[in-house]
Amino acid sequence: MGASSSSEQDEITEEEELEQQELESFAASTGALSILQKSFSNLSDPDTNSIPIPSLQECFRLTFENTPSKMKSPLPECFSRLLTHLGPAVVDLFFIADENGGVHWIEFLRGYIRCCGRMSLSVSLNTVYKLYAGISAKAGAPSKLEFESKDDDSKTSGNFTSDDVFMLLWMCWIMSWTSEISKHSKHPMDVDLPNINHLILSAVTSCVEISSDVDVGKVNISDLNVQLPAEKLHAWALTTVPNLAHCFTQYVHDRLQRCTVTEEPHRSSISIVESSSTESHNPCLLTSGKAWAISLTLTSTVNKEILKTCVPKDSVGVFENLLYRSSVHGKVMNRFWSSVDGYHGALLVLISACSIESCEGDSNPGRWIIGVLTDQGFENKDVFYGSSGYLYALSPIFHVCSPTGRDKNFIYSHLQPAGRGVYEPHPKPVGVAFGGTPGNERIFINQDFSTMTIRYHAVDKTYRPGSLFPNQGVLTYEASILEVEVWGLGGEKVKEQQDAYRKREELFTEQRRKVDLKTFGAWEDSPERMMMDMVSDPNKVNREDR
């Protein structure tokens, strides 16, 4: 019996060792093994070789300050309670403690993989829903969500309210920005709750039918007391904000990385500020809420550059990535081109517009904003070019039109030919366009940047279907442009290359303006002298010296 019991114990130990090796191999493949080892060493109790639950909860706890003096209205009480229970909910949902209340190394690895392991996008989003439901229950406001798990797949049923979507998105925003801010600042920073009405309206209109009599541009989100089926909201998230789940995995990874040091940096505490106190002082079209919404549609490194655009370079609100703004640089094609010429990197173009009729007759017209994301800079060509891109409806409702892969008419940018005296029976249009075909562009901006033509998506095989502004029909639409912005998303190296290109162009231009008389030899024998003499007295007879 003793031998049998000993053999059984050895067999269990071997299974645990194999599982530990497998888990460590998986963690190493994600590049997080060293972080997990260091954080476990700092958090664990040497006597039990396990992490006490309170210590692990503190690791994932979000420390924040709600400073009324910095806010026009206090932080919503329900959201404050949610943030308070973030750390305990993460531990309760994803980390299993032993009978002594500690988390051992193997279970610590399992918990990390449950949060940040490789899984399908659908499962990752369901993980975020579970976290929100767990936090809501701890905060005393349980949601109406139900979860079913079968092996590697999970399903969410029930309903979200519009307030649930608000809190869920704000929670993801805070998790995303705390982890991003920690990489760029050594001091506490004010993190505002952005205006995300465009995202809420996008989710609501995708899940339920809104009466045609309702003006979505003026609707009050708080008045939308609707129930959103979880299945439909999940489908919306998969197609519109697929990178939402990354906010949670990024947060978990960042919190564990903070625990690799013995002393917690002071920057872990953030101050949450109401959006109106910051966005009201931002004159740009690209607000933090719009930039974050765009980043949620992307899985590439460009989304990090987009998030950086929300952080001013200095305290006076200078945005170093803003290449062109029509109200500042000039509302004309040449000024636009001088600002973007030589920038060979990803660009984000934002256009604020309204109908020509409303702009002429209404002092407060219904404005809307669209955006275009390109993976390269502009080139002076009379044909379409580009390899990838996205179209966005940014305000009042958010929508993304991703590339279809069927065509590559992503960008068209053609300048007025300079110094060309040859007659062209069929000249190419001068302006900037995105999608569609020549003559039937989906978006076309004329050369003086005053008007814009938008066509129905049926003419476009490059970008996916979707309305770019409220109540867009099948007819061609003429709009009056109010503002245009171009943001550079190529990083510091691309901006430095553009600056060097501009300096070279300025040098060449200055050199062409100067005339070096030495190149003409003696002035008396130069052809210029002869021409000037002929012009001054064309009848003068010049005798040839013999």
Describe the fold and architecture.
The radius of gyration is 30 Å and the shape is elongated. It has helices at 2-29, 33-43, 53-60, 77-84, 86-94, 105-116, 121-138, 162-181, 197-207, 230-240, 245-258, 276-279, 288-295, 302-308, 326-329, 333-340, 356-361, 492-513, 527-536; strands at 51-52, 64-66, 102-103, 144-150, 153-161, 190-193, 227-229, 270-274, 322-325, 347-355, 368-374, 389-395, 399-401, 412-414, 431-437, 440-446, 451-454, 477-488. The chain has 546 residues and is an alpha+beta fold. Strands 9, 10, 11, 12, 13, 14, 15, 16, 17 and 18 form a ten-stranded antiparallel sheet that branches. It has a three-stranded parallel sheet with strand order 2-8-6. Residues 1-11 and 67-74 have low confidence and may be disordered. Helix 3 (53-60) packs across helix 5 and helix 5 (86-94) packs across helix 7 (121-138).
Write the layout of secondary structure elements.
Elements: H1 2-29, H2 33-43, E1 51-52, H3 53-60, E2 64-66, H4 77-84, H5 86-94, E3 102-103, H6 105-116, H7 121-138, E4 144-150, E5 153-161, H8 162-181, E6 190-193, H9 197-207, E7 227-229, H10 230-240, H11 245-258, E8 270-274, H12 276-279, H13 288-295, H14 302-308, E9 322-325, H15 326-329, H16 333-340, E10 347-355, H17 356-361, E11 368-374, E12 389-395, E13 399-401, E14 412-414, E15 431-437, E16 440-446, E17 451-454, E18 477-488, H18 492-513, H19 527-536
Parallel strand pairs: 2-8, 6-8
Antiparallel strand pairs: 1-3, 4-5, 5-7, 9-18, 10-11, 10-18, 11-12, 12-13, 14-15, 15-16, 16-17, 17-18
Helix pairs in contact: 1-6, 3-5, 5-7, 8-11, 9-10, 13-14
Pfam families: TLD
Organism: Papaver atlanticum
InterPro entries: TLDc_dom
